Amino acid sequence: MNSRWIAIAAALPLAACAAGEATTGSTPPPPPAEMTCNADAVQSYVGQTAAAEVGGAILKAAGARTLRWAPPRSAMTMDYRQDRVNVMYDDAYKITQISCG
Predict the structure, then answer these.
(1) Is the dihedral of CA 97, 50, 48, 62 positive or negative?
(2) What angle do CA 70, 73, 35 make, to 5 degrees?
(3) pTM for the complete prediction?
(4) Which of 15, 45, 69, 78, CA to CA, is 20 to 30 A from 51?
């Protein structure tokens, strides 16, 4: 007998949440379109001088959401993001490598 009351008591909050969502009539917005980086599309920029305009062109051509500049001898986090393009350059500001992540 007690287990029946426990089951009913546990189900009531869940039912209230489901009813609350149904009565609002709004649906959550769809997730933003996934942007993935394509490093192959921007390899022609290797050897060019690192500058803001070049960075913008790389970002657009790679189809990435974010751009990360990697100066020489700098530490970078190892977290992988499929929507980020990484641009490494040397002391002369020449782009040496472009990768995603």
Answers:
(1) positive
(2) 20
(3) 0.66
(4) 78
